[in-house]
Every structure is written in structure tokens, then in C-alpha cells.
Predict the 3D structure of the following.
Amino acid sequence: MGLTTPQIMLWVLGALIPGILAMTYVWGPGVLWNVFWLSLFCVVAEALCQILRGQRSLRALGHELGDCSALVTAWLMAICLPPTTALFILAVAALAAIGLAKHAYGGLGNNLFNPAMVGYAVVLVSFPEGLAVWPALADTATQTDALTGATPLSEFRYREGLTVVEFENQYAQTLAEQQIVSYAFLLGGASLLWGKLINWRMPGGIVLGLAIAALVGTDQGSSSSLGGWWFHVTSGGLVAAAFFVATDPVSQPKNLRHQLWTGVVLGILIYTIRSYGSYPDGIAFAVLLANCVTPLMNRWHNQQVAAGQSRAPT
């Protein structure tokens, strides 16, 4: 017997906990601030959208809210945003994710784009200065900390002539802490694989695509190197995105082979946007671009299934 939608959503929430706890350990309780307020805003937005769509029964409204999909969207956005993000930015993200990306397309199961990535992309483009404030990198060379600073990815990109080895030595502590976060999300992702809630092909394809792209841009670790595949896997949100975002059952392709190739393309896109685009981490934009072609791949898959059934002996 398969799991119900609320059971699946609760499992995903549980799988996110190790990563959220690791982020809280590294960046402080501001991470929990994001989780709390986005959870509240997303649930309120969900209720308002249900009412505007004609849901008047409190019992039915409670049933709709009880599927916990709004909380999953909230938590995924919370781990993308800097700790203690301003409340008005969190509110805009919640409205964009729930109202624009989810209910504008007909609600749960009908959305074309991943709601969490839509909400994050909207506020990232709208409030770039407000989302640039992350806890500072620890500079082990000078043993100084600032109140705010860049992420490892953006600091690596603008490292002012440092070779890869010099950068890794200078920011060894920060990179190690970032790896702890990645391993924690990997643990949660493994639980989703174990429970067969997701398939390995999408996350595997993402890592494979990123590794292929890194072979081109990494050179021998010079000051112009774009970074190796392991650095890109563990120094940003790629692990969380590979297991919790790209595997969204609604916005990913149905065909398993299509999932693998979509993952490969996603990995290449993420590496390309990080290396040449205007944003240090290109996960949200890469996912949304991939979402655009998912309906086409699903239509192709359905045509192949229909053609196979028509050729089957009666």
C-alpha cells in the first residue's frame, strides 16, 4: 500500500531536519527564523488561496492544509535564504510560491514550476541586496570574522588571484563547515532513496553533469580555475537541490531515462551559471529552465506508452 500525500510530505520534512540542524549549527538560529516565518506565511497563503478559489468549509480547508505541501515549500525556501531574512522578503517569497507558482496553475499536482524555486527566484531578483547578507566566511589566515559576508561560492568566484589550493587553505574552516551541511542533506536524501520516495537518476544525473562540466573549467587549480566538481557539490546548495528540489514528482519528467538526462543537463546548467552568470549559485534558475521542458518530455513519454499499448497483442 502506497503512502498518502500527507505521509510523503511529512517524510520529506523529516528528511530535511538533519540539513536544517546542520545549517543552524554553522550559521546560527537565524536559519530557524526563516523556517518559522516561512512556515507561517506559506500556510496563511495556502489558506487564502483556498478561500479565494471557493473553499468555504472549515473542515475541507483543514483537509487541504493538512497535506503539509505548504510546509515543504516553506522549508525548501528557508534553506535557500540567508539567516534572519527580512520578514517582508519572506512574505513575498511565500506569496509567489503558493499563489503564483502553485494555485495559479490549479493547486497541488498541477504546477508547472517548482513552487519553492519560484518563490526564491522572485525575491532573489527583486531584493538582491537583502539576500547578499550571509554570515561571514572565517578567514583562517587572519583569524578574523566579520558580521556579514559572502558565501563560499561567491568568495571563490572573486578570490582576486588566489589559486585553488591557496583559497582552500585560507578558508579551510568554512569549507569544512559547508561540507557538514552537505553531508547532512545527503543523509536526508538517502532516507528518501531508501523509502523509494525518489529515484537515484535525477540526483545522480546532476552530479554527473556537474562533473562533466568541471572537467572543462577546472584546469590544474590556477587562479583562473572555475573550481572542481567536488568543490561545487559540497560548497553550495547542490546536494539539497539534487535530492529535495529537482526530484519534485510534479515538475520532474515521468520517464526514468528522461530524469537521468534532465539531471545531467541540470548539473551542466548549474555549473555554467555559477561560473559565467550574474549569480554565484545557479540552482533555482537551472531548475526553472528544466521545468519548462518537462511537459514536452512527459508528452513524448505518454505518446511512447500509447504507441506501445496499441502495438500490444489483444
